[in-house]
Amino acid sequence: MIIGVPKEIKNNENRVGLTPAGVAELRKHGHELYVQATAGLGSGFQDAEYEQAGATVLPTIEDVYAKAEMIVKVKEPIASEYPLIKEGQLLFTYFHFASGEELTHAMIERKAICLAYETVELPSRALPLLIPMSEVAGRMAPQEGAKYLEKPLKGRGILLGGVPGVKPAEVLVLGAGIVGTQAAKIAAGLGAQVTVMDINLNRLRELDDFMPKNVVTQYSNEYNIRAAIKTADLIIGAVLIPGAKAPHLITRDMLKTMKAGTVLVDVAVDQGGCIETCKPTTHEDPTFIIDDIVHYCVANMPGAVPYTSTLALTNATLPYAVKLANLGWQKACQQDAALRLGLNVVSGEVVYQGVAEAWNLPLVDVSTVLEGAEVN
User: Fold this and answer.
1) Sequence-separated (6 or more) residues with CB below 8 Å from residue 76
2) Is 105 in the active site?
3) CB distance 298 to 282 below 8 Å
4) Kindly report the CA angle at 326 between 323 and 329, in degrees rounded to 5?
5) Which positions fall inside the Alanine dehydrogenase/pyridine nucleotide transhydrogenase N-terminal domain (predicted)?
6) Residues 183 and 225 both lie in one domain
7) Which residues carry a binding-site annotation?
8) What is the CATH number of the domain that holds 140?
9) Is residue 96 among the annotated active site residues?
10) Are strands 287-290 and 293-296 parallel, antiparallel or unpaired?
11) Residues 16, 78 share a domain
């Protein structure tokens, strides 16, 4: 298969879809690799490293899209890329269609094969291609929140861990999945008093067993959230419903009950956000203020630590990329139920329920786009 790796062009996105090691592995299986010039530079990989691994470096993004049968990226295509996408071209990347109506309609129009990292799902319900970036974003959330709690950045002027004789900050984490667990772990390590909320009691029991004593768990409902936000200094939104919009757990009216200078970090902003007032921001301009509450809503948080993020992502995506390249997307998705769930839009049809529901579009059974073959 001919595989292309374009340079990411979303604001301040420095990750890259494949490392030189990933190129070498795909070459070992006999595939042809084309990488756009300087695509890996932001993650610390030189063009020469890709060439040594067996890739051909092409000067422009247009060249890469024109050559490739499969595009391996990190973030969803943006408007300037839409015209470059060919009918039947396989795009393997994060899409988050449920929060991007324009993107959804563009991919339907281009009749591309859109296989989304974030909805590849194992029988255990684990999301293997989302986990590494969730781990990065979760660990970054308290770090960013601590920074924006500083007074010059319009926060409350509180040190997350406090000092002897002065109470630490109170951190509220909404969601006890991968993001929430990592966020709670880092916030607790910095000395904060942490509350983690979730509706999954079994998960809360697990956290209670291994988290340090400055982390407490609480069942998530509107009453408990409204009470907790009144004293919280930092609130981290870590709610995920795979492939669908996140629910708004904090609404606009709740902001007025918070202390001025409270910081909100909405890691769920890629999926529409779990805080009603959040809207996607960039690393270049990461925050905005509503009702004296600081909102940090960067949609590609791991892009700020691209070396770590690219390595972590490629570790997870490469085995699936190899399978797609070796078998072709149809056979690979017939044989692998997890990959099959990654299919969101196929040749102009929506085949993932969360996307169809988000934009009121007709849903086509995925088996009908796999050439009528028997699906395992």
Assistant:
1) 10, 93, 94, 95, 96, 100, 103
2) no
3) yes
4) 65
5) 4-137
6) yes
7) 15, 75, 134, 198, 203, 220, 239-240, 267-270, 298-301
8) 3.40.50.720
9) yes
10) antiparallel
11) yes
Q: Which of 286, 295, 363, 370 is nearest to 328 (CA)?
A: 370
pLDDT tens digits, residue range 310-359? Answer: 999 999 999 999 999 999 999 999 999 999 999 999 999 999 999 999 99
Residue 374 pLDDT grade (very low, low, confident, very high; cuts 50, 70, 90) = very low
Residues 285 and 313 in one domain: no
- pLDDT over 50 at 369, yes or no: yes
Q: Which residues are annotated as a binding site for NAD(+)?
A: 134, 198, 203, 220, 239-240, 267-270, 298-301
Residue 42, Cβ neighbours under 10 Å: how many? 18
Of the candidates 140, 217, 213, the one whose C-alpha atom is nearest the C-alpha of residue 172 is 217
- The residue annotated as part of the active site, out of 96, 233, 248, 266, is 96
Q: At 310, phi and psi to the nearest 5?
A: -65, -45
Look up residue 46 and give its two tokens: 């030189």
Q: What is the reported pTM? A: 0.87
Co-location of 75 and 144 in the same domain: no
Q: Is residue 14 part of a domain?
A: yes
d(CA 97, CA 76): 9
Residue 29's domain comprises 2-119+305-369
DSSP 8-state class, residue 375: P
Taking alpha carbons only, the member of 93, 67, 107 closest to residue 347 is 107
Q: In this structure, are 14 and 80 located in the same domain?
A: yes
